Amino acid sequence: MDSHGTRSTDYVFRTVWRVAGTPDEVADILGEPSTLPDWWPSVYLAVERIHPGGENGVGRMARLLTKGWLPYTLRWTFTVTSPITTSGFTIRAAGDLDGTGRWVFEQDGPETVVTYDWQVSAHKPLLRRLSWLLKPAFAANHRWAMARGQESLALELRRRRSGAEPHSVPAPPPPTFPRVAGRGRRTA
């Protein structure tokens, strides 16, 4: 443990995005894990829906295969733990990552400010063994992944707008290290 009482395998991140769209549009996209590989393929390699959850999204579960820029993958389960609303929702992560994530959506003129607080502990053996040494690299990997998320969410919002020609919106960025990424596939 460090002087703040956290282990080297504990990670706390806050990410803030600004995207052109409404909180309702953002909630629809981020609250549906089965579509993540379609619009955020640089990070979400495969999703298997486990449970659809209730009408408000609580209990929605999916098994995920994810990666960032670095050439390793993470297998974890995403469970919605609070209602998906236009102000946000929370998730529980279990598997290679264990912890909680909280999405908050706030309208600011024509944009939505999206804040994501992610508090997880790494359980993947590689991350557990090397966190004491490579924690800055793993944190940079997370920041890279979230930057691709903002870029990909902005593209998906454009794609979903009525009147937008599907071919007029660029494709989202692909995963790095295709051989590692090739292990995943979407299984909704």
| Total domains | 1
The biggest beta sheet reads: 7 strands, antiparallel
Alpha plus pi helix count = 4
Q: What are the secondary-structure elements, in order, as H or E?
A: EHHEEEEEEHH
Helix content: 25-40%
What fraction strand?
35-45%
Distance between the termini: 39 Å
CATH topology: Alpha-D-Glucose-1,6-Bisphosphate, Chain A, domain 4
Report what the structure shows.
It is a single chain. The model is unreliable at 1-5 and 183-188 (pLDDT under 50). The longest helix has 36 residues, at 125-160. Helix content is 28%, strand content 35%. A hairpin with a 2-residue loop joins strand 6 and strand 7. It has four helices and seven strands. A seven-stranded antiparallel beta sheet has the order 1-7-6-5-4-3-2. The protein has one domain: Alpha-D-Glucose-1,6-Bisphosphate, Chain A, domain 4. The chain is α+β, with helices and mostly antiparallel strands and 188 residues long. The chain has helices spanning 23-30, 36-39, 125-160, 178-181; strands spanning 10-20, 44-51, 61-67, 73-80, 88-95, 97-108, 111-122.
